[in-house]
């Protein structure tokens, strides 16, 4: 992030702090990947709650993320700046809905989510290009997370039945 943009955000501002993935979005290379990595401790902790609570936390993260990402993009004066990574955090949460949290599932889910988030195949690309504002920043990652979740469930089912 260049100096002008750094002057428009503050890690002391809780909105910016969360939108920038606890600072992980400020990493100069692959901020989305680092934002996804920042979600892993959260997901590990969420592995101890019921499925219903997991879903509530995920939905709240999405809804709050619309505001966080929209406000921070407005403050940066750049739509969906790469440093805004709360959408990756919420997308990772979607990836792990109803998935047992363990080292293998975390690795597979992370790789699947990054694959879909980076390549943006249909329909993810449609949302990425046509929907704007905070909702637009969030929705393509939520869709990527949903596709990654379906694939992860399929892989884990296959692995459990292949043994």
Topology:
Layout lengths: L2 H4 L7 H6 L11 H16 L4 H26 L9 H10 L7 H17 L4 H7 L2 H30 L1
Strand composition percent: under 5%
Shape summary: globular
Q: What's the helix-strand series? A: HHHHHHHH
Radius of gyration: 15 Å
Spans where pLDDT lies below 50 across 5 or more residues: none
Q: Which structural class do you get from the secondary structure elements?
A: mainly alpha
Largest sheet: none
Number of helices: 8
Assembly status: single chain
Whole-number count of domains: 1
According to DSSP, the number of beta strands is: 0
Amino-to-carboxy terminus distance: 47 Å
State mean pLDDT (0 to 100 scale): 95
Please estimate the helix content.
over 70%
Please provide a brief summary of the model.
The chain has 163 residues and is mainly alpha-helical. Helix content is 71%, strand content 0%. It has one domain.
Walk me through the structure.
With 163 residues, the protein is an all-alpha fold. It has one domain (3-162). The chain has 8 helices and no strands. The chain has helices at residues 3-6, 14-19, 31-46, 51-76, 86-95, 103-119, 124-130, 133-162. The chain is globular, with a radius of gyration of 15 Å. The model has no long low-confidence stretch (mean pLDDT 95).
């Amino acid at each position: 992030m260049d100096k002008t943009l750094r002057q428009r955000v503050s890690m002391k501002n809780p909105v910016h702090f969360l939108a920038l993935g606890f600072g992980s979005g400020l990493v100069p290379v692959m901020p989305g990947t680092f934002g996804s990595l920042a979600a892993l401790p959260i997901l590990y902790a969420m592995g101890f709650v019921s499925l219903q609570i997991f879903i509530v936390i995920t939905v709240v993260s999405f809804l709050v993320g619309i505001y966080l990402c929209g406000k921070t993009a407005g403050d940066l004066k750049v739509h969906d700046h790469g440093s805004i990574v709360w959408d990756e955090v919420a997308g990772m949460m979607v990836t792990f809905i109803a998935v047992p949290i363990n080292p293998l599932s975390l690795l597979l889910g992370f790789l699947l989510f990054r694959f879909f988030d980076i390549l943006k195949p249909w329909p993810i690309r449609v949302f990425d290009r046509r929907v704007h504002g905070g909702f637009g920043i969030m929705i393509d990652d939520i869709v990527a997370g949903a596709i990654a979740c379906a694939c992860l469930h399929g892989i884990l089912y296959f692995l459990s039945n292949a043994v």
